[in-house]
Design brief:
It contains 17 helices and 11 strands. It has about 450 residues and is an alpha+beta fold. It has a 4-stranded mixed beta sheet with strand order 1-2-7-4. The chain has a 3-stranded antiparallel beta sheet with strand order 3-11-8. Strand 9 and strand 10 (about 440) form a beta hairpin. The structure holds protoporphyrin IX containing FE. Protoporphyrin IX containing FE binds near residues 91, 102, 274 and 404.
Protein backbone atom coordinates (compact mmCIF):
# COMPACT_ATOMS: atom_id res chain seq x y z
CA UNK A 1 0.00 0.00 0.00
CA UNK A 2 1.43 3.42 -0.86
CA UNK A 3 1.39 5.77 2.07
CA UNK A 4 -0.69 8.92 1.58
CA UNK A 5 1.33 12.01 2.50
CA UNK A 6 -0.19 15.22 3.86
CA UNK A 7 -0.09 18.10 1.36
CA UNK A 8 3.17 20.08 1.24
CA UNK A 9 3.69 23.11 -0.98
CA UNK A 10 6.22 22.82 -3.81
CA UNK A 11 9.63 24.42 -3.12
CA UNK A 12 11.18 26.89 -5.53
CA UNK A 13 14.48 26.22 -7.36
CA UNK A 14 17.61 26.86 -5.25
CA UNK A 15 18.69 29.94 -7.20
CA UNK A 16 16.37 32.71 -8.37
CA UNK A 17 16.84 36.44 -8.91
CA UNK A 18 15.86 38.86 -6.13
CA UNK A 19 12.95 40.16 -8.14
CA UNK A 20 11.64 36.73 -8.86
CA UNK A 21 11.95 35.98 -5.16
CA UNK A 22 9.96 39.08 -4.24
CA UNK A 23 7.33 38.08 -6.77
CA UNK A 24 7.06 34.54 -5.41
CA UNK A 25 6.97 36.00 -1.93
CA UNK A 26 3.99 38.12 -2.75
CA UNK A 27 2.14 35.01 -3.84
CA UNK A 28 3.04 32.82 -0.88
CA UNK A 29 5.98 32.73 1.53
CA UNK A 30 6.01 28.94 1.78
CA UNK A 31 6.48 28.03 -1.86
CA UNK A 32 8.88 31.00 -2.25
CA UNK A 33 11.52 29.10 -0.24
CA UNK A 34 14.03 26.53 -1.53
CA UNK A 35 13.86 22.89 -0.34
CA UNK A 36 17.29 23.19 1.30
CA UNK A 37 15.73 25.13 4.19
CA UNK A 38 14.30 21.83 5.40
CA UNK A 39 17.89 20.67 5.96
CA UNK A 40 19.71 23.91 6.81
CA UNK A 41 20.65 25.11 10.32
CA UNK A 42 20.78 28.71 9.22
CA UNK A 43 20.39 30.66 5.99
CA UNK A 44 21.14 34.22 5.02
CA UNK A 45 19.18 36.43 2.64
CA UNK A 46 21.31 39.35 1.54
CA UNK A 47 19.82 42.01 -0.70
CA UNK A 48 20.54 45.66 -1.40
CA UNK A 49 18.02 46.73 1.26
CA UNK A 50 18.31 44.32 4.12
CA UNK A 51 19.90 41.27 5.67
CA UNK A 52 17.76 38.50 7.05
CA UNK A 53 18.79 35.29 8.71
CA UNK A 54 16.60 32.25 8.95
CA UNK A 55 17.51 30.46 12.16
CA UNK A 56 16.68 26.77 12.10
CA UNK A 57 18.99 25.31 14.72
CA UNK A 58 17.42 24.42 18.09
CA UNK A 59 20.01 26.08 20.36
CA UNK A 60 19.93 29.30 18.31
CA UNK A 61 16.12 29.39 18.29
CA UNK A 62 16.31 28.96 22.05
CA UNK A 63 18.81 31.82 22.33
CA UNK A 64 16.55 34.23 20.44
CA UNK A 65 13.22 33.28 22.01
CA UNK A 66 14.02 32.02 25.48
CA UNK A 67 17.46 33.07 26.66
CA UNK A 68 17.79 36.64 25.40
CA UNK A 69 14.38 37.86 24.20
CA UNK A 70 15.19 41.47 25.12
CA UNK A 71 18.09 41.46 22.65
CA UNK A 72 15.80 40.22 19.89
CA UNK A 73 12.67 42.39 20.12
CA UNK A 74 9.81 42.17 17.70
CA UNK A 75 10.64 43.86 14.48
CA UNK A 76 8.77 47.14 13.98
CA UNK A 77 8.19 46.19 10.43
CA UNK A 78 5.85 43.36 11.20
CA UNK A 79 3.63 45.92 12.87
CA UNK A 80 3.20 47.99 9.76
CA UNK A 81 0.34 46.10 8.17
CA UNK A 82 -1.43 45.54 11.46
CA UNK A 83 -1.02 48.86 13.22
CA UNK A 84 -4.21 50.52 11.90
CA UNK A 85 -6.22 47.68 13.41
CA UNK A 86 -4.20 46.65 16.43
CA UNK A 87 -2.79 49.96 17.71
CA UNK A 88 -0.48 49.27 20.64
CA UNK A 89 -1.68 45.78 21.36
CA UNK A 90 0.44 43.25 23.24
CA UNK A 91 1.26 41.52 19.95
CA UNK A 92 3.13 44.56 18.64
CA UNK A 93 4.71 46.32 21.61
CA UNK A 94 8.19 45.78 23.07
CA UNK A 95 10.05 46.59 26.27
CA UNK A 96 8.31 48.01 29.33
CA UNK A 97 4.97 48.67 27.59
CA UNK A 98 4.79 45.03 26.54
CA UNK A 99 5.82 43.72 29.98
CA UNK A 100 3.07 45.72 31.67
CA UNK A 101 0.47 44.45 29.22
CA UNK A 102 1.47 40.84 29.83
CA UNK A 103 1.29 41.33 33.60
CA UNK A 104 -2.34 42.40 33.22
CA UNK A 105 -3.39 39.90 30.56
CA UNK A 106 -1.64 36.70 31.65
CA UNK A 107 -3.72 36.03 34.79
CA UNK A 108 -6.88 35.77 32.65
CA UNK A 109 -5.35 32.88 30.71
CA UNK A 110 -3.75 30.97 33.57
CA UNK A 111 -4.39 27.22 33.69
CA UNK A 112 -6.73 27.57 36.67
CA UNK A 113 -8.99 30.04 34.84
CA UNK A 114 -9.51 27.71 31.89
CA UNK A 115 -12.05 25.79 33.91
CA UNK A 116 -14.17 28.96 34.20
CA UNK A 117 -13.81 29.66 30.49
CA UNK A 118 -14.71 26.11 29.52
CA UNK A 119 -18.56 26.28 29.53
CA UNK A 120 -18.50 29.15 27.00
CA UNK A 121 -16.02 27.25 24.85
CA UNK A 122 -18.16 24.15 24.96
CA UNK A 123 -21.29 26.09 24.05
CA UNK A 124 -19.50 27.41 20.95
CA UNK A 125 -18.40 23.87 20.07
CA UNK A 126 -22.00 22.62 20.39
CA UNK A 127 -23.22 25.41 18.13
CA UNK A 128 -20.55 24.50 15.54
CA UNK A 129 -21.60 20.84 15.56
CA UNK A 130 -25.25 21.83 15.15
CA UNK A 131 -24.39 24.04 12.14
CA UNK A 132 -22.44 21.23 10.49
CA UNK A 133 -25.18 18.69 11.18
CA UNK A 134 -27.57 21.08 9.50
CA UNK A 135 -25.44 21.21 6.36
CA UNK A 136 -23.86 17.79 5.74
CA UNK A 137 -22.79 16.80 2.21
CA UNK A 138 -20.01 18.86 0.64
CA UNK A 139 -18.65 21.54 3.00
CA UNK A 140 -15.84 24.09 2.78
CA UNK A 141 -14.50 23.62 6.26
CA UNK A 142 -12.22 26.68 6.68
CA UNK A 143 -15.27 28.92 6.57
CA UNK A 144 -16.89 26.79 9.24
CA UNK A 145 -13.89 26.65 11.54
CA UNK A 146 -13.43 30.43 11.24
CA UNK A 147 -17.03 30.88 12.29
CA UNK A 148 -16.57 28.45 15.20
CA UNK A 149 -13.30 29.96 16.43
CA UNK A 150 -14.69 33.51 16.25
CA UNK A 151 -17.69 32.30 18.24
CA UNK A 152 -15.35 30.84 20.89
CA UNK A 153 -13.60 34.20 21.24
CA UNK A 154 -16.77 36.26 21.61
CA UNK A 155 -18.37 33.84 24.02
CA UNK A 156 -15.30 33.50 26.24
CA UNK A 157 -14.32 37.17 26.09
CA UNK A 158 -17.68 38.95 26.19
CA UNK A 159 -20.24 36.21 26.91
CA UNK A 160 -21.94 36.86 23.57
CA UNK A 161 -22.31 34.48 20.61
CA UNK A 162 -21.16 35.34 17.11
CA UNK A 163 -24.81 35.88 16.18
CA UNK A 164 -24.78 39.00 18.38
CA UNK A 165 -25.06 41.99 16.07
CA UNK A 166 -21.79 43.71 17.00
CA UNK A 167 -19.84 40.43 17.16
CA UNK A 168 -21.13 39.40 13.74
CA UNK A 169 -20.12 42.73 12.25
CA UNK A 170 -16.60 42.55 13.69
CA UNK A 171 -16.24 39.09 12.21
CA UNK A 172 -17.29 40.01 8.67
CA UNK A 173 -15.47 43.32 8.58
CA UNK A 174 -12.38 41.66 9.83
CA UNK A 175 -12.44 39.30 6.86
CA UNK A 176 -12.67 42.27 4.51
CA UNK A 177 -9.77 43.93 6.29
CA UNK A 178 -7.54 40.97 5.67
CA UNK A 179 -8.48 40.79 2.03
CA UNK A 180 -7.62 44.45 1.55
CA UNK A 181 -4.32 44.34 3.41
CA UNK A 182 -1.80 42.17 1.60
CA UNK A 183 1.39 43.87 2.80
CA UNK A 184 1.89 41.97 6.00
CA UNK A 185 4.08 39.10 4.89
CA UNK A 186 6.10 41.09 2.48
CA UNK A 187 6.74 43.97 4.86
CA UNK A 188 7.80 41.59 7.56
CA UNK A 189 10.25 39.48 5.66
CA UNK A 190 11.48 41.76 2.93
CA UNK A 191 11.79 44.99 4.87
CA UNK A 192 11.54 48.01 2.66
CA UNK A 193 13.79 50.97 3.33
CA UNK A 194 12.31 53.21 6.00
CA UNK A 195 11.98 56.17 3.67
CA UNK A 196 9.68 54.31 1.33
CA UNK A 197 6.08 55.38 1.88
CA UNK A 198 3.66 52.67 2.99
CA UNK A 199 0.46 52.40 1.07
CA UNK A 200 -2.60 50.76 2.40
CA UNK A 201 -5.22 49.84 -0.11
CA UNK A 202 -8.14 52.21 -0.22
CA UNK A 203 -10.56 51.39 2.52
CA UNK A 204 -8.11 49.54 4.75
CA UNK A 205 -7.70 52.32 7.30
CA UNK A 206 -11.39 53.10 7.13
CA UNK A 207 -12.24 49.47 7.71
CA UNK A 208 -9.81 49.25 10.64
CA UNK A 209 -11.32 52.29 12.32
CA UNK A 210 -14.81 50.90 11.86
CA UNK A 211 -13.81 47.60 13.45
CA UNK A 212 -12.24 49.51 16.33
CA UNK A 213 -15.41 51.55 16.80
CA UNK A 214 -17.44 48.35 17.06
CA UNK A 215 -15.04 46.89 19.61
CA UNK A 216 -15.09 50.18 21.53
CA UNK A 217 -18.84 49.80 21.83
CA UNK A 218 -18.36 46.41 23.52
CA UNK A 219 -15.61 47.61 25.86
CA UNK A 220 -17.44 50.76 26.94
CA UNK A 221 -20.62 48.81 27.63
CA UNK A 222 -18.56 46.38 29.64
CA UNK A 223 -16.85 49.15 31.58
CA UNK A 224 -20.29 50.48 32.53
CA UNK A 225 -21.42 47.01 33.62
CA UNK A 226 -18.29 46.56 35.74
CA UNK A 227 -18.97 49.89 37.42
CA UNK A 228 -22.62 48.92 38.00
CA UNK A 229 -21.56 45.55 39.42
CA UNK A 230 -23.51 43.64 36.78
CA UNK A 231 -20.67 42.37 34.56
CA UNK A 232 -20.45 38.64 33.79
CA UNK A 233 -17.36 36.80 35.02
CA UNK A 234 -15.67 36.32 31.64
CA UNK A 235 -12.26 37.11 30.14
CA UNK A 236 -13.09 40.76 29.36
CA UNK A 237 -14.16 41.47 32.92
CA UNK A 238 -11.12 39.66 34.28
CA UNK A 239 -8.71 41.64 32.07
CA UNK A 240 -10.43 44.96 32.60
CA UNK A 241 -10.39 44.62 36.37
CA UNK A 242 -6.87 43.22 36.80
CA UNK A 243 -4.39 45.70 38.23
CA UNK A 244 -0.77 45.66 37.15
CA UNK A 245 0.90 44.21 40.27
CA UNK A 246 3.81 46.63 39.85
CA UNK A 247 2.06 49.93 39.22
CA UNK A 248 -1.51 49.25 40.32
CA UNK A 249 -2.84 50.61 37.00
CA UNK A 250 -5.53 48.96 34.85
CA UNK A 251 -6.08 49.21 31.10
CA UNK A 252 -7.90 52.34 30.04
CA UNK A 253 -10.68 52.08 27.46
CA UNK A 254 -8.39 52.65 24.44
CA UNK A 255 -5.83 50.13 25.56
CA UNK A 256 -8.55 47.57 26.02
CA UNK A 257 -9.74 48.09 22.44
CA UNK A 258 -6.20 47.28 21.24
CA UNK A 259 -6.11 44.10 23.30
CA UNK A 260 -9.56 42.90 22.26
CA UNK A 261 -8.58 43.43 18.62
CA UNK A 262 -5.53 41.19 19.05
CA UNK A 263 -7.41 38.52 20.97
CA UNK A 264 -9.89 38.42 18.18
CA UNK A 265 -7.22 38.30 15.47
CA UNK A 266 -4.66 36.03 17.16
CA UNK A 267 -7.29 33.89 18.80
CA UNK A 268 -9.57 33.05 15.92
CA UNK A 269 -7.48 33.01 12.75
CA UNK A 270 -4.96 30.60 14.23
CA UNK A 271 -7.38 28.17 15.86
CA UNK A 272 -9.54 28.18 12.73
CA UNK A 273 -6.56 27.29 10.56
CA UNK A 274 -5.41 24.47 12.86
CA UNK A 275 -8.89 23.02 13.22
CA UNK A 276 -9.51 23.02 9.47
CA UNK A 277 -6.24 21.17 8.81
CA UNK A 278 -6.92 18.75 11.66
CA UNK A 279 -10.29 17.88 10.12
CA UNK A 280 -8.71 17.44 6.70
CA UNK A 281 -6.06 15.12 8.14
CA UNK A 282 -8.82 13.10 9.83
CA UNK A 283 -10.49 12.68 6.47
CA UNK A 284 -7.17 11.56 4.98
CA UNK A 285 -6.42 9.10 7.79
CA UNK A 286 -9.71 7.40 8.68
CA UNK A 287 -8.04 5.02 11.14
CA UNK A 288 -7.14 8.04 13.29
CA UNK A 289 -10.55 9.56 12.76
CA UNK A 290 -12.16 6.43 14.22
CA UNK A 291 -9.85 6.54 17.24
CA UNK A 292 -10.73 10.18 17.97
CA UNK A 293 -14.44 9.51 17.49
CA UNK A 294 -14.34 6.55 19.91
CA UNK A 295 -12.40 8.50 22.52
CA UNK A 296 -14.91 11.38 22.29
CA UNK A 297 -17.46 9.31 24.22
CA UNK A 298 -15.61 10.60 27.31
CA UNK A 299 -17.20 14.00 26.71
CA UNK A 300 -20.65 12.69 27.55
CA UNK A 301 -20.72 14.20 31.04
CA UNK A 302 -19.87 17.68 29.76
CA UNK A 303 -17.29 18.36 32.45
CA UNK A 304 -14.00 20.20 32.08
CA UNK A 305 -12.25 17.18 33.61
CA UNK A 306 -13.33 15.06 30.62
CA UNK A 307 -11.07 17.12 28.35
CA UNK A 308 -8.01 15.59 29.98
CA UNK A 309 -9.22 12.20 28.68
CA UNK A 310 -8.96 13.34 25.04
CA UNK A 311 -5.39 12.08 24.68
CA UNK A 312 -5.59 10.89 21.08
CA UNK A 313 -7.37 14.04 19.99
CA UNK A 314 -4.64 16.10 21.64
CA UNK A 315 -1.89 14.12 19.88
CA UNK A 316 -3.73 14.57 16.58
CA UNK A 317 -4.05 18.31 17.17
CA UNK A 318 -0.40 18.56 18.19
CA UNK A 319 0.62 16.73 15.03
CA UNK A 320 -1.55 19.10 12.98
CA UNK A 321 0.22 22.09 14.56
CA UNK A 322 3.52 20.50 13.62
CA UNK A 323 2.65 19.95 9.95
CA UNK A 324 0.58 23.13 9.51
CA UNK A 325 1.73 25.63 12.14
CA UNK A 326 -0.86 28.44 11.81
CA UNK A 327 1.89 31.04 12.33
CA UNK A 328 4.44 29.68 9.88
CA UNK A 329 7.19 32.23 10.50
CA UNK A 330 8.04 34.92 13.05
CA UNK A 331 10.42 37.83 12.82
CA UNK A 332 12.69 39.42 15.40
CA UNK A 333 15.35 42.09 15.06
CA UNK A 334 18.93 41.85 16.38
CA UNK A 335 19.27 44.79 18.80
CA UNK A 336 23.05 44.44 18.88
CA UNK A 337 25.69 42.73 16.71
CA UNK A 338 25.74 38.96 17.17
CA UNK A 339 27.70 35.97 16.01
CA UNK A 340 25.69 32.91 15.00
CA UNK A 341 27.36 29.78 13.56
CA UNK A 342 30.50 31.77 12.91
CA UNK A 343 28.67 34.40 10.94
CA UNK A 344 28.39 38.04 11.80
CA UNK A 345 24.80 39.10 12.35
CA UNK A 346 24.76 42.90 12.17
CA UNK A 347 22.65 45.07 14.45
CA UNK A 348 19.24 45.57 12.88
CA UNK A 349 19.31 42.28 10.95
CA UNK A 350 15.97 40.52 10.69
CA UNK A 351 15.92 37.13 12.40
CA UNK A 352 13.33 34.82 10.90
CA UNK A 353 12.20 31.89 13.00
CA UNK A 354 10.27 29.38 10.98
CA UNK A 355 8.04 26.90 12.77
CA UNK A 356 7.17 25.70 9.27
CA UNK A 357 10.74 24.60 8.49
CA UNK A 358 11.80 23.63 12.02
CA UNK A 359 8.78 21.33 12.38
CA UNK A 360 9.72 19.46 9.20
CA UNK A 361 13.49 19.58 9.66
CA UNK A 362 14.93 16.52 7.97
CA UNK A 363 17.89 16.22 10.31
CA UNK A 364 15.78 16.40 13.47
CA UNK A 365 12.48 14.61 12.93
CA UNK A 366 11.83 11.00 11.97
CA UNK A 367 9.40 10.86 9.05
CA UNK A 368 9.28 14.71 8.97
CA UNK A 369 6.57 15.08 6.34
CA UNK A 370 4.43 12.15 7.45
CA UNK A 371 1.32 12.32 9.64
CA UNK A 372 1.95 10.26 12.76
CA UNK A 373 0.23 11.34 16.00
CA UNK A 374 1.88 8.36 17.72
CA UNK A 375 5.27 10.06 17.36
CA UNK A 376 4.63 12.13 20.50
CA UNK A 377 5.04 8.96 22.57
CA UNK A 378 8.41 8.07 20.95
CA UNK A 379 11.88 9.17 22.06
CA UNK A 380 12.40 11.19 18.88
CA UNK A 381 8.99 12.84 19.22
CA UNK A 382 9.60 13.78 22.85
CA UNK A 383 13.06 15.13 22.11
CA UNK A 384 11.80 17.16 19.14
CA UNK A 385 8.85 18.47 21.14
CA UNK A 386 11.38 20.03 23.50
CA UNK A 387 13.85 21.26 20.89
CA UNK A 388 12.15 21.76 17.57
CA UNK A 389 8.46 22.41 18.16
CA UNK A 390 7.28 26.01 18.54
CA UNK A 391 3.73 26.39 17.16
CA UNK A 392 3.01 28.87 19.96
CA UNK A 393 6.51 30.39 19.92
CA UNK A 394 8.46 30.03 23.20
CA UNK A 395 9.96 32.00 26.05
CA UNK A 396 8.63 35.25 27.46
CA UNK A 397 6.64 36.10 24.34
CA UNK A 398 4.98 32.72 24.08
CA UNK A 399 1.36 32.83 22.91
CA UNK A 400 -0.89 33.90 25.76
CA UNK A 401 -3.62 31.65 24.42
CA UNK A 402 -1.56 28.43 24.12
CA UNK A 403 -3.30 26.62 26.99
CA UNK A 404 -6.66 27.93 25.82
CA UNK A 405 -6.04 26.72 22.25
CA UNK A 406 -4.91 23.29 23.42
CA UNK A 407 -8.29 22.82 25.11
CA UNK A 408 -10.35 24.43 22.36
CA UNK A 409 -8.80 22.50 19.42
CA UNK A 410 -9.04 18.92 20.72
CA UNK A 411 -12.48 19.68 22.21
CA UNK A 412 -14.06 20.94 18.98
CA UNK A 413 -12.32 18.25 16.92
CA UNK A 414 -13.68 15.51 19.19
CA UNK A 415 -17.17 16.96 19.36
CA UNK A 416 -17.43 17.17 15.57
CA UNK A 417 -16.12 13.64 15.01
CA UNK A 418 -18.41 12.23 17.68
CA UNK A 419 -21.39 13.17 15.49
CA UNK A 420 -20.08 13.28 11.95
CA UNK A 421 -17.96 11.16 9.62
CA UNK A 422 -15.72 13.09 7.25
CA UNK A 423 -14.13 12.12 3.94
CA UNK A 424 -11.85 13.90 1.47
CA UNK A 425 -13.31 15.08 -1.84
CA UNK A 426 -11.71 13.66 -5.01
CA UNK A 427 -9.89 16.29 -7.06
CA UNK A 428 -9.92 18.87 -4.27
CA UNK A 429 -6.73 18.18 -2.29
CA UNK A 430 -5.84 21.43 -0.48
CA UNK A 431 -2.60 23.29 -1.26
CA UNK A 432 -1.13 25.03 1.81
CA UNK A 433 -0.26 28.72 1.40
CA UNK A 434 0.64 31.29 4.03
CA UNK A 435 -1.57 34.34 4.21
CA UNK A 436 -1.93 35.71 7.71
CA UNK A 437 -1.99 32.07 8.82
CA UNK A 438 -1.43 28.81 6.92
CA UNK A 439 -4.53 28.26 4.81
CA UNK A 440 -5.44 26.30 1.73
CA UNK A 441 -5.27 28.00 -1.64
CA UNK A 442 -8.84 27.10 -2.60
CA UNK A 443 -10.42 26.19 0.69
CA UNK A 444 -10.58 22.77 2.33
CA UNK A 445 -13.44 20.67 1.04
CA UNK A 446 -14.84 17.73 2.95
CA UNK A 447 -17.73 15.34 2.61
CA UNK A 448 -19.73 15.15 5.84
CA UNK A 449 -22.21 12.46 6.84
CA UNK A 450 -23.84 11.49 10.13
CA UNK A 451 -22.28 8.73 12.23
C1 LIG B 1 -3.85 27.11 17.59
C2 LIG B 1 -4.00 28.33 18.03
C3 LIG B 1 -2.90 29.35 18.20
C4 LIG B 1 -1.64 29.37 17.69
C5 LIG B 1 -0.95 28.33 16.81
C6 LIG B 1 -1.01 30.59 18.17
C7 LIG B 1 0.29 30.96 17.88
C8 LIG B 1 0.91 32.10 18.34
C9 LIG B 1 2.28 32.46 18.07
C10 LIG B 1 3.26 31.67 17.23
C11 LIG B 1 2.52 33.65 18.69
C12 LIG B 1 3.84 34.43 18.67
C13 LIG B 1 3.89 35.33 17.45
C14 LIG B 1 5.19 36.10 17.36
O1 LIG B 1 5.96 36.12 18.30
O2 LIG B 1 5.40 36.75 16.32
C15 LIG B 1 1.30 34.03 19.35
C16 LIG B 1 1.15 35.17 20.10
C17 LIG B 1 -0.02 35.55 20.68
N1 LIG B 1 -1.20 34.82 20.74
FE1 LIG B 1 -1.52 33.01 19.95
N2 LIG B 1 -1.91 31.28 18.93
C18 LIG B 1 -3.06 30.55 19.00
C19 LIG B 1 -4.21 30.89 19.69
C20 LIG B 1 -4.37 32.01 20.46
C21 LIG B 1 -5.54 32.33 21.25
C22 LIG B 1 -6.77 31.43 21.36
C23 LIG B 1 -5.32 33.56 21.82
C24 LIG B 1 -6.19 34.39 22.73
C25 LIG B 1 -7.40 34.15 23.04
C26 LIG B 1 -4.00 33.99 21.40
C27 LIG B 1 -3.41 35.18 21.76
C28 LIG B 1 -2.12 35.55 21.45
C29 LIG B 1 -1.52 36.81 21.88
C30 LIG B 1 -2.18 37.90 22.71
C31 LIG B 1 -0.20 36.82 21.40
C32 LIG B 1 0.86 37.91 21.59
C33 LIG B 1 1.76 37.55 22.76
C34 LIG B 1 2.94 38.50 22.92
O3 LIG B 1 3.50 38.96 21.93
O4 LIG B 1 3.33 38.72 24.07
N3 LIG B 1 -3.46 33.03 20.58
N4 LIG B 1 0.33 33.07 19.14
Amino acid sequence: MTQVMPPKPPARPDRVSLWRYVKLFRQDILSAQPAKLYRAWMAEFRTPFFRSFLVNQPDLVKRVLKERPDDFPKSDRIAEGLKPLLGNSVFLTNGEAWKRQRRIIDPAFEGGRLKDTFPAMRAAAEAAVARLEGQQGLVEIEEETSHAAADVIFRTLFSIPIEHEVAGQVFTRFRDYQRSQPLLNLAAFVPLPRWMPRFFRRGTRQNASEIRALIAQLTSERMAAIEAGTAPDDLATKIMTTRDPETGSTFDADEMVDQVAIFFLAGHETSASALAWALYLMALYPEWQEKVAAEAAALEDGSFAAVSKLKISRDVFRETLRLYPPVPMMVREAACPERFRNRDVPKGAQMVLSPWHLHRHERLWENPDGFDPARWQTENGKQCQRDAYIPFSAGARVCTGAGFAMVEGPLILSMILRRLRIEPVAGKAPVPVAHLTVRSQNGIWLQLSPR
